[in-house]
Amino acid sequence: MTLHVLPVEGLFGLHRPWLSLYGNRLQVPSTVSEKETELALIQRSIPNELMVIILGFLEPYSLGKAALVCRQWRILSEHPRLWEHACNEALSLSIPDRGERQKLMATKYRFSWKRMFIHHPHLRFDGLYAARNTYVRTGVVEFTNHKPVHLVSYFRYYRFLPDGTFLYRTSPHVVSKVAKSMAQLPFPVPCAGSGSAAGQCAAVKLPRNRGPGGPGGGKEWQAADKDRAAVLWGHYVVKGNKVHCTLVYPNSTSTELHCHLAMWSTHPGANNRLAIESIITRDRELGSTAELVPQQEPNADEDAPSVKSHSRGLAPCVFVPWEQVHISPLNKPSHEMDFMIV
């Protein structure tokens, strides 16, 4: 039995002609051309197997940008081998055992290396972490009856390397002026492997920016090279989402700096924030030969007379990739930056 719906009069005498379309099939014209789409030269010249090997030399976050180029690259960027290599590089310190990484991928992240890389906390090696700290200081009275007030601004910079070494610097200069000194290593670091893992332990060549806010010429780059002496380096360990850093101040054999940080992200996969939980300085006895090892507990020796805990300068760190060091909001002066980045 077939039910036929006839046009009826609606409310207030309104006619509804669309009711007559019920049960009728409409022919939708096709907008897709029958002509085959011509492939690009790179798609015709390089097979998919070789393209996966080439994409393996990219950083994980650069791989995500390459996936936006075309449909073929988006499909190839999902290859499990690429994300397995990214997870092994990013989690080699927090999860040293390869078998444990595979078990965690299978049980918690449903057999997806890419999902594990996105959702598991880890440090980023394609840039540096910067924290902007400000405080108010009362000036000296000179020929006036009132005391001037100064707004002091300075930065803490961290750069982490995959081998467990990190670079540290405090400076009043913005990130675009300090990035040159942080990009070049003050010591040789041997790195095994190939691809991006080997490139991480080498000096980074920063992109030149000739626009506003960038370096004005060779003099600024030469000044950045002289600032390399102000860069300190030490060792760090990762446990879960916690990072414990330790270094010895230069020209000193007894004063240590311990930083305890926590990783978090503003959105999944970003890993772009470091919360500074505590900064502790410790003075060992002169001539001590104890091995310098990052402490697992932030307050293990806080009550010792040689330990001093610092409560100032604990603003969270913001991650700045190398390609964004000249356009980061952290380059703005204090009178223009009237907000805090959290």
UniProtKB/TrEMBL annotation:
One cellular component (GO) term of this entry: cytoplasm
**Pfam families noted in UniProt:** F-box-like (PF12937), FBO_C (PF19270)
Segments for region (Disordered): 290-309
Q: Name one GO biological process term.
A: SCF-dependent proteasomal ubiquitin-dependent protein catabolic process
Provide the alphabetized UniProt keywords: Ubl conjugation pathway
> What's the domain of life for this entry?
Eukaryota
State what protein this is by name.
Answer: F-box domain-containing protein
* Organism (species): Volvox africanus
